[in-house]
Amino acid sequence: MAESPLRFETPDAWTETVLADFDGFLQDHAAAEKKASGMAMSMLSHYPDRVELVAAMADLAVEEMSHYREVVRWLHRRGQITAADTRDPYVIRLRDEIRQGPEVYLLDRLLTGGVIEARGAERFALVADALEPGRLKRFYQSIARSEERHYALFLDLAGLYFSAEEIEQRWNELLDIEANVAASLPLRAALH
Length: 192
Hints:
By secondary structure, this protein is mostly helical.
């Protein structure tokens, strides 16, 4: 994997918390994939004139829904059923940082998406590293690689519509904000 841009490293205690309630983690993972697909659909709906963004978000929505389907299969194999979605305090706090105004809102949505995907890449890799060799470990290795590609995709899309200076300044601000959010939240068997 490429070097992570994140400024807060997830502690080992998070992985231990996940492994102690892996079924709960799978429930949250399923919800996160479903919400990510919905976010991609929202983006392409709000920006129909941004051809590259629409194409990329259509592909992303399908990929995230495919991940959702795979997590649901893991839940069913373990005798679980999907549960109602719950609010994600991490995502809520990051969304609160999205500025208003047509252009800055788009920039912040793209960069916030990138930060969230970068955190997903880090944490899914931690899960993969902690699992015993086998299909589930390979699944999480694959998911971590996907999240890494997604975070790069959001940055690439931002680069189509905004200057490098604008992106770098706001990316750095959002990375600092994200680090504070990630460090301040209680550990739970959830992606965030």
